[in-house]
Amino acid sequence: MPKTLEFIADHLPRVTVDDVVRRFSASIEIRDARAFAAELQAFVHERVEAVALPPSLEMPRVETTEQTLARKAAALRASTRWVAGETDIQRGRAAMLEAFDQPHNLPLADFARLANKSRQQIYKDIDARRLLALNVGPRGQKLPDWQLDPVKQRLTQAVLQGAVEVDNWTLYRALSEPLESLGGRSPVEAVTADSVSEVTTAVLNVLSIH
């Protein structure tokens, strides 16, 4: 039985003996008014239950909390997966190349010379996540020159070690772009010898790593 009719049937006023006497005594002979009232009540209940309501009039089903959350999550889920268009890819590539060519990003050979290290040692430091290197394919690798500063290099290494699943370009932007928590300065600008741990935490928070 539809929920609406079930609700109505269960909440119908009871048929009383007074109702029976007042309504039927003039037209029929009632031997047992109490029994007649009970039978009449059951008859009305059965007739209501037999009615078929259209779906639009049925009482809505009450959702559980889990069902409500699942329904809302489904409404937020796109029917098709987003795929970057050609324009988006080109724009992202252009921004990456522009950052890659910034003067502070040094070719590996130049960085090795200024750091007074061999190229082999720089490669080892990159592989061990002691140095941050940027790569755009066949153009080779470049390293931000701030890593020539011991304090900034400590910060960079700490971020590299704390965010092993994050790609280097994301780490580069997190380290070089202004943060509100650092008074609008970038982490590499704000860090001092005494604040490496604090600034590292600020960068990792931006990356949602806690």
From TrEMBL:
Name of this protein: Integrase
- In terms of superkingdom, the source organism counts as Bacteria
